[in-house]
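Example for tutorial group B:
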């Protein structure tokens, strides 16, 4: 089964409906399966991250593993994206296109594993180290995982979606890290990108969390400047303007009657 944008003109997804979608019990069960599989692919790629390996090779392996499970890679042909995963090395923040560059010792690699399974998208991202990295890279990565966990911990019915951004921005300010503001979390389900928009910075989004809402939280934390540019050569690759390194972790969560459930686990 393939998402609608694969055959749409220009591979464009349908316009986002500007309302929050509340998933039924049957849809939630399907989202648990698709996101559990996305997490499984995230685990699958981790041991492939080694010096001398190219991100093209990791992409091909991830593609084959998704197909083996009967899933379609969500990024593939999404608005023309050419590969099955996104691989973002060091100063590349997100949307990096796998290529023939061999990974080298000390690289910090973000891999976004998103897939379409049984009619629903699963979406997650992780940061992995190539060989030995410096203490600053480990500290950045540990902080990013911790700030994601803290943001998830405050999610429950009645909480404004804007609280996610407040918590993340506040923690980054205290730690002296930058937080990328141009790219956000999002609702996810039958479409890869849905409402609500989930910003990772201070904002005034009035939407309140409700049981049945499903969305991603995916902070992109930088060592230095959080201002970004997009490579003109491909129109996709996002880099920090000062070329400082970035770490990212992403999970998809479900708002339950009492709190939040991480689906990408």
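The residue assignment follows.
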């Amino acid at each position: 089964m393939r998402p609608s944008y694969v055959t749409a003109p220009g591979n464009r997804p349908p316009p986002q409906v500007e309302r929050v979608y509340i998933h039924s019990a049957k849809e939630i069960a399907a989202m648990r399966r698709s996101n559990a599989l996305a997490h499984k692919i995230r685990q699958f790629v981790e041991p492939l991250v080694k010096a001398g390996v190219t991100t093209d090779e990791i992409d091909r392996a991830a593609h084959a593993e998704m197909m083996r499970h009967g899933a379609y890679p969500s990024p593939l042909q999404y608005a023309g994206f050419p590969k099955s995963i996104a691989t973002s090395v060091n100063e590349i923040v997100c949307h990096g296109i796998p290529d023939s560059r061999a990974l080298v010792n000390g690289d910090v690699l973000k891999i976004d594993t998103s897939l379409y399974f049984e009619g629903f998208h699963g979406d997650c991202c992780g940061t992995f180290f190539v060989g030995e990295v410096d203490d600053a890279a480990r500290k950045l990565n540990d902080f990013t995982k911790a700030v994601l966990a803290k943001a998830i911990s405050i999610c429950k019915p009645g909480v404004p979606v804007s609280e996610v951004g407040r918590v993340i921005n506040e923690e980054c300010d205290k730690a002296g890290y930058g937080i990328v503001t141009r790219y956000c979390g999002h609702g996810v389900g039958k479409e890869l990108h849905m409402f609500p928009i989930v910003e990772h910075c201070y904002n005034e989004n009035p939407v309140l969390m409700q049981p049945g809402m499903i969305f991603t939280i995916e902070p992109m934390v930088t060592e230095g400047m959080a201002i970004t540019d997009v490579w003109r050569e491909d129109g996709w690759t996002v880099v920090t303007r000062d070329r400082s390194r970035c770490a990212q972790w992403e999970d998809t969560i479900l708002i339950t009657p009492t709190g939040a459930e991480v689906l990408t686990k």
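The helical segments are 25-45, 55-68, 135-153, 162-175. Compare this with the pattern of hydrophobic and polar residues in the output above.
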